[in-house]
Amino acid sequence: MNLANRITFVRIFLVPIIVLLLINVDLGPLVFADFSITWNQIVATVIFIIAASTDGLDGYIARKRKIVTNLGKLLDPLADKLLVAAVLISLVQMDRIDAWIVIVIISREFAVTGLRQIALLEGVVLAASNWGKWKTAVQITMIIALLLNNFPFAFLDIRFDLIASWVAALITVYSGIDYFVKNKDIIQIS
Asked: Is the pTM of this model over 0.85?
């Protein structure tokens, strides 16, 4: 078990902690004038940011130290999908995001993962596209805005969380279509 894989396992381990904080724990509210947020949301957000930031770290360490493993290739994208899906589903339960947006995002992840599996069976590794990287960045930004009840934009009466949700949905769909169009030959081979 190398360092990169340990970091990935930590990210997976943090997923249920974040979910518990969001839907099963009440640490009380923090109130500023008309703005309110729970302490458990703040703690969950900090843990989410730490977990999301380890995504690039484990890959960097694996490549830098030349310790890329099949286990890491399997677990790294799985950890990313678990983290995003679990938090998004929790946000639906908290009534912070519409379920249809979460369904679109998770469906795209399943579809692209399926395409990657087909490619692996053909001996091809599909790298993340630039649109996929943008998709991830926008989704993480959206999740943070939703976890923080649109802080600090709530004070400016700007619905950044809603805008970020729509942008995330659009970029997610586009990046999925882009992925399939650029790799249509993989589907035809299989």
From this structure: yes
